[in-house]
Specification:
Blueprint (H helix, E strand, L loop, with lengths): L9 H5 L19 H11 L3 E5 L6 E2 L5 E2 L4 E2 L2 E5 L2 E12 L5 E13 L13 E5 L5 H6 L6 E6 L12 E6 L10
The structure holds zinc ion (ZN).
Zinc ion (ZN) binds next to loops.
Length: 181
Amino acid sequence: MRLEGTRLKEQDFQELPGVIYYKPYTRYKFSAGYAVSVFLEGLRNGKIIGAVCRRCGRVFVPPRSYCEYCHRPTDEFVELPDRGEISTAVISYISAKRGRLEEPVIVGVVRLETPGYRQDSYEFAGLFHRLCGVTEEDVKTGRAIGMKVKARWKPPEERTGSILDIECFEPITTGEGGEEQ
Ligand SMILES: [Zn+2]
């Protein structure tokens, strides 16, 4: 059964009786906490930093100060290679601020390389980010999954200690691929 309805436009909401518009004056400071602060500072310096739990061998990215598997503090920070492979990829029409995008972006989770540390198939050190140079076709056909990618960093003078200091992850092309290509 198909139930017919009337599609509402933004304008319709604005004309509802009793609707009041105001701009709240809300200023606040947010502390990233110790572990994430180390992570953000690392990004400013062009490094991806994780936290290691020596008991179970896991490395957390972004770093955590506590290992939820062992119920103990993590032991140290480590710099990881700024590369990995695509674990999930989607074509998104939603902007980071939840607006509609006319041109979609490809985003997904990059499973980072963590040489020497434990990685299970279902849990791993990964970052969600934009994927540049990955086409919609790559996503639709599933070709994107497993693609080797590398962080494309902003120039040092433009970095602010934000996840956006990495512009995106992009496929590693022949010549810069390194040893395993
Ligand atoms: Zn642990």
